Amino acid sequence: xxxxxxxxxxxxxxxxATGCSxxxxxxxxxxxxxxxxxxxxxxxxxxGQSYAEPGFTALLNGEDYTSNVTISSNVDTSKPGxxxxxxxxxxxxxxxxxxxxxxxxxNPGGIANVYLSNCSMGAxxxxxxxxxxxxxxxxVYEIDDMCGGxxxxxxxxxxxxxxxxxxxxxxxxxxDGSIHVTKVGNWYFKSSFDYTNITGxxxxxxxxxxxxxxxxxxxxxxxxx
Length: 225
Fold this sequence. Notes:
The chain is mainly β. It has helices spanning 12-18, 150-155; strands at 2-7, 28-32, 34-37, 43-46, 56-60, 63-64, 70-73, 81-90, 96-106, 113-121, 124-137, 140-143, 169-173, 179-184, 198-203, 208-213, 216-222.
């Protein structure tokens, strides 16, 4: 239950300064809807399957408020990726509360899939950062962050969207699994990296990407529920 004091109409400072009367207007309080998700978060669905809403409940000052919740979603189960379902409710005073559920659309055995990244540079190491690879066209793929979350989730969490720390990168794979960059987004540290200096690559037998990106080591393991 979230309570918030909105206004206090007679301040203590004014009472001290003026010796005003003891009549004080009541404090206005608003109650925010408390939305609770049922089921898993993140929720996992396989590529091509339907998303089935796991459910939710909402209370407002102890009373059922579930019917006042609205849902917005960008889930597309025809494409592997990480999507979001947002549940929102506006209280009688016009104040909104919301919660979100992540939905992972998985493509087991495919290059385009959801991965967990382990990345390191020097003494810094960050683990289990969700990373997505999608297929742009036949044989051309895009990773949402070539750095595997090292900057946006590791070193500088919360700095986006003021700064773009996602190194979105398009690439092809050689017959040996080597990574060949074809296009790089305009991310903050773009000029600091040599995109021809990528060693390692993709292992088709395990589905794992393991590469060194100009001194930054990244391992991407397919997400498993």
